[in-house]
Amino acid sequence: MQEVKQGNDWLTSDSDEARAIRFLAEQTDVSPKQAKEIVSEHGCNREKLLQVAHTLKAEG
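The line above is the sequence of DUF3606 domain-containing protein; the predicted structure tokens follow.
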């Protein structure tokens, strides 16, 4: 799995991780930074990412 680089490189990158970060930040209330952390920890499966994001928001 290719690691997303520091900063906002995910905005212009076309890697799977960058697409997952953009998707998660656009579809949920999580910040881009939170989305990047979630993708780093849980991978790029969109269904799993949405579950984790919704769980975080429910806890917070």
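Note on the example: The radius of gyration is 11 Å. The chain has one domain: 16-59.
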